[in-house]
Design a protein that fits this description.
Layout lengths: L6 H6 L7 E4 L3 E5 L7 E7 L14 H17 L7 E4 L3 H4 L8 E5 L9
Antiparallel strand pairs: 1-2, 2-3, 3-5, 4-5
This protein binds guanosine-5'-monophosphate (5GP).
Length: 116
């Protein structure tokens, strides 16, 4: 995977707008432009990592922070108990379309399993 910029770099630099719901030093979260559930937010690291395959061992804490931010967001929205789904797609078979890792946070409806 090459290191070209993605649309998420433009969201991070505020070049293009997004509905930001959470931000700290290392993580940004914003509403997905094409929501697949009543609540669909993307949690991204502020540094670009193209796919799960490129995550370095030293970045485990950063990746963990995506989950912690999602956990806190679920509590904030009062959906923690009813439940939600977090998903990270990888490459073609995973149907990844933006090559900057992101945790999809989906909530507000019953999810199905297995996914299509
Ligand atoms: P992937 O398919 O890579 O797992 O997920 C990429 C997600 O980014 C998709 O759900 C898509 O709707 C979302 N997305 C793509 N472009 C934009 C954009 O410009 N703004 C926002 N907010 N979401 C985007």
């Amino acid at each position: 995977m090459n290191n070209t910029t993605t649309i998420f770099d433009k969201i991070l630099s505020k070049e293009i707008p997004a509905e930001i719901v959470f931000e700290n030093d290392t993580v940004l979260a914003f509403k997905d432009i094409n929501p697949q559930a009543p609540i669909h937010v993307l949690f991204i690291p502020k540094i670009r990592i193209n796919t799960i395959n490129e995550i370095k061992d030293s970045q485990s804490e950063l990746v963990g922070q995506l989950f912690l931010a999602a956990r806190d967001y679920a509590k904030e929205l009062s959906v923690a108990e009813e439940g939600y789904r977090v998903v990270m797609n990888c490459n073609e078979h995973g149907q990844q379309t933006v090559f900057h890792i992101h945790l999809h946070f989906l909530a507000g409806r019953q999810m199905n399993w297995p996914p299509g």
